[in-house]
Amino acid sequence: MKKIGINKAVIAYLFWGAVTTILNIGIFMLVVKIGINYQVGNVLGWLAAVTVSYFTNKVWVFYSKYMGLKNTIKEMGRFFFYRIVTLIMDFVITFIGISLLGINSFIVKVVDNVVVVV
C-alpha cells in the first residue's frame, strides 16, 4: 500500500463519502418519484452507494493494489457483508419515518443517512 498523508486520506474519504451519500439519496428519491416502493429505492441506492464506495475507497482513499479477481471478489464480499448492517438500518428508519409516522421521504432519507454515518 502506498504511504499517504493522513490529511489527504481523510479529505478523500470525506469527499467520496459525500458522493456516495448523494448517490444513495438521489437514487432513492428517483425511485420514489417514479412511483416504485421506497424500500426498492433503499436497496438500489444502497447497492450503488456501497459499490461506488468500495471502488473509490480502494483506489483513491487507501491506494490499495489490485490483487487479482479472486482476491478482489473476496475483499468486495467482505466489504458488502459488513455494510449489510447499514441496509438493515435503512429499512428500519425509513419504515418508521415513512410508513408509520408519514414523514416526507426525502427528509426521512436524509436523517437515515446521518444516523447510518454516525
The fraction of residues in strands falls at under 5%
Average pLDDT score:
90
Oligomer: single chain
How is the biggest beta sheet arranged?
none
Shape descriptor reads elongated
Based on secondary structure, the structural category is mainly alpha
**Helix amount:** over 70%
First-to-last CA distance? 27 Å
Counted by DSSP, the helix tally is 4
Element-by-element helix/strand order: HHHH
Number of strands: 0
Low-confidence spans: pLDDT under 50, at least 5 residues?
none
Rg: 16 Å
Explain the overall architecture.
The chain is built from four helices and no strands. It has helices at residues 6-33, 38-61, 69-100, 105-117.
Descriptive key words:
118 residues; 4 helices; elongated
Short overview:
This protein is mostly helical. It has 4 helices and no strands.
Indicate the topology.
Elements: H1 6-33, H2 38-61, H3 69-100, H4 105-117
Helix pairs in contact: 1-2, 1-4, 2-3, 3-4
